[in-house]
Structures are given as C-alpha cells and as structure tokens.
Here is the input.
Amino acid sequence: MTTATLPAVDSDVEIMAKLLATDRALGEYEQLARFRILKSHKELPAKGNWFDYEAGARVISFIENFCKHGKGEWSGRPMLLEGWQKAIILQAFGWKRPDGYRLYRTMWLELGRKNGKSALASALGVYLLLADHEPGAEVYSSATKRDQARIVFDAAKDMINQSPALKEYVQVQRANLNVLRTRSKFEPLSSEGDTLDGLSPHGNIIDELHSHKNRVVWDKLITAQAARRQPMNLLITTAGIYDPEQIGWQLHDHAVQILNEKVEDDSWFVWISASDLGDDPYELSTWEKANPNLGVSIYPSFIQQRASEALSQPSSLNAFQRLHLNQWTQQLERWLDMNDWDACNAPVDLGALEERDCYMGLDLSSKLDLTALALLFPPEEDDIWRLWVQSYIPEESMAERERTEHIPYSLWEREGWITPTEGDVIDYDWILKDINEFADRFNVLEMAYDPWSCQQTALRCRDDIGLHVVPVRQGFMSLSEPTKEFERLVVSTKLAHGGNACLTWQANNVSVRHDPAGNIKPDKGKTAKHKIDGIVASIIALARGSLYDGGSIYEDEGIMVL
Here is the structure.
C-alpha cells in the first residue's frame, strides 16, 4: 500500500490546517467544525486521548489506492480525496482513547447534495469491512427505503468489482458483500423494525437522516453495538424539515450544540457545511458555504440553474434551500416568499378603522388546537387591504406546548397576537365575545367560516350577534382563487398585516397542495405542530371580501361555496 497523499509538515495541527486551507466562503457551522478540529489537538491530550496519525493516514491510503468511482464522468478513476475529506478522516479515525481504541464513534456529515458524501461513506464502509482489524465485522447501510439504502451499498459493490485486489477477498452478491476469511459482511437495510433485530454492527451508514420519521433505525442499530470495541456510525444527510419530534432534526440539533460547545460529546465528530440564515440564496458565496466540493463533484452552473428555478418559482425555493444550501425549512414546499411577506408589515391600527367595512374569517380547528379569527378590511382611500388576525390557544396547555414545541406563545401573548382562553380546551364563548365586540366596532359585511369545524358557532354568530354568515368549504374549488389572490396581494405589497409575529410564523409554515386541474389550497404538510389557522382564516375572509368590488368569480352571498 502506498503512502497517503498528505502534506509534509511538522505537527498534527499544521497537517490539519494545511488540509483545511481554503479560499471559499465558509458558513458559521463549518467554521465551528474547523475550529473544533484544531482545538482538539490541544485539549484532547489533556483527557488522556492521543492522536494516531498513522491510523487516520491508513484509511486515506486505503481509499485512494483501492476505491474507484462507479458512476458519471469519473467512473473507473481512483477516488482521490479533497483536503477537507482527508482532514475529517484523519480526525475521525486518528484520535484514540487512553485504552487505544477510537475516540470518535459517530461521524455526522451534513452538507449540500452532490458533494460526494455517499461515495465517501461507501468507501469508508469498505474500509470498515476489510481493513479495520475487526473479525466478523458487520457493516450496514440503512435508510427509510431499501432503494435508498442500496445507493451506498451499490457504490461499495462497484468499488469492490473495480478492484482486483479487493475482489480477491470479497464474495460479491446482489444484496450482500461477504468476506469469508474474517466472517465479515456488508448489507443494505430498510427501516422496517423487524429486519433490524439480531445485528451486531461494527459499521453503520445511515443515509439521509432528515427523511427518517422515527427513531427505529437509529435506536436499534446503535444499541446493537454493545459487543463492539470501536464501532463507527456514519450519519450522512442534507437538511430536512424542522420538526423537533423527528430523529433527523434531533441529531442535527445535538450536532449543532456540540459545535456551539453547549454539549460536550467527544464520541461525536461533526461536520456541517451550510449557508447562513440571511444569506442571499442566489450568490456564489452562499453556494460555497454549503458545497465544499463546488467545482469538483458539483458544478456552479448546476446550482445556478436550480437557483434560477427557485427565483422564478417560489414553490421551488424550499427544496433549493434544503438540497443545495443545506438549510432546514419549515415545510417541504414554500408558498410565500418571506421577504415579500415581511414587506407587508405596515401597521394596522384598529382604532383608525372604526366603522370601516370588514370581512371576518373564522377557523376554529379543534378545541385542543390553535384557532384564529381574521378581520379583513377592503381598501378605501388607497389600494391596501388591512388584515388583523387574533389567534387563540388553551391556557392550560400553552406553557407545555411552548416548552416542547419551542414556539414563543407567551411572547406573542404579551404582544397581543394570541389570546389564551381559560381551561385546557378552546373556550368558544371567549371567541364569541370578541366577535361581538368587533361587530360593534366595524361594519362586518360577512363572516366566512368552514362549515366542517364551526357550524354551531356560526349559527350563534347569526342568531345572537346578527352577523351575515357564509360557509366556505376548504376544498380546492372554493380556496384556489382566494389563495392565489392572497399571494398576489402579498407579492404586490397590497396587504398590510401589522407585523403580526404569530401570523408570520404561520405564513412561514404554509405550503400548498395541488389537484390535477391546477387548483391550489393552503396546507401545513405532515408536521402537525406547524399551524396555519390564521392564514386559512384570512383566505376564507378574502374569498368573500374579493366580492367587494364585484371582481370575483364566486357565487353570490347566501349560497354555500363548494
């Protein structure tokens, strides 16, 4: 085996600094990851740990001498590692505990798509299978679906097939790599819990953790390593959907806390390449932060094309942010551009709107859930629609939900955007009291409501308060046009929402669903904690309010909108 292609410098720190040297823009997380690497060479020895340069260099030599690319323009060519890749391998495989076994047991690699993380994971998997001095090594690539798990496995299989030296030792099968001499194997696994019992992994490669909905794979594979002296877990992912209950976000958050030195965990090596919040998504420097292999395995022209699509199609922006900027988003598909939304934060003074025409929208949702009342004022002296939304939440559950969901309900209460109602369920009488007060202050032309959720409350508004109530069903036919109109008002800055922080959070949560005819309606996706009730209430108010100047396609009042 030839020597790894590493710089000839004097010290471990200099080696790392040389490998990490770059002139590309770096995001906050990668800066912290690099700093942690360099700092470790001063701090870890104080704990009795020691750096085995040769152990890390051996992994690099193995990959560069025996592993070849299996696809694309580089197919059949040796896998020559970039400086940053060599640095993370040296760090992860070189540090030893006082007992001589590896310090790091988990590698968290989070970066933009097409930066070679799957190929690197495959090569490391082959190393763990063949060269890590582990008899009976079991290496598994796993994902939510077997096809995804096979991506890493198939790349490893290609590496074996292209190397006569490796193929001499490995029996290659469709779904299994066997090393008979050491009783070792490499297999792909899906996330079905019953397939994960009875394993003893030396190496786990868990792909695209952001898509894992539960802890089944993680918990079973990690707890199955009890009999291994120095197991290695390679966790590779791009950013996903922010959801505190999903394992991908939980592990991402753990990794971030390690980088921020809020959590001390010397068993984790962390590398995150991501753009920063507030970065211009269409700037080259932003792309550089999330793509350490920009210009190597991923071309700027490719990202430029994706960025252009996101610019012209706001619904593509979230996917672009996750896949190519490595930013976690609130929903799969963005509906509103939040820069446009923020531009609509002109004040809404209810005192100045006394006796003005007004349309109400009411979305009661569940008694245990967030609910919302929208007041929409058509333009008079200008062309601006003014929107006031009051949200409601059960008082007894607010503190617990704030703690578990990390949503600042108490702050929004102090700012006046949300009202806690007494008890552990929404008090509809409280909402009726507010509706009655608003009806006295403004000229409420109609109150729109969803007949599925609040038929009885709407009837009380009609019979007790004297409002003209109109049902608007939450289907594609009834919501498509007002949803599109709402977006148009936001994009053209024809809507003022008063800087409502709770409503802004909900606006950022909204995605849209499409039917085959091209109709759309607001949707909160699969994340139940990301509420959109205030936006829905606003849209159904607009469904009736758009009749104000006779410019709507909707049926006349008094007829249920289908």
About this structure: The longest helix spans residues 28-43. The longest strand covers residues 385-394. The radius of gyration is 28 Å. The chain has two domains: 12-279, 340-545.
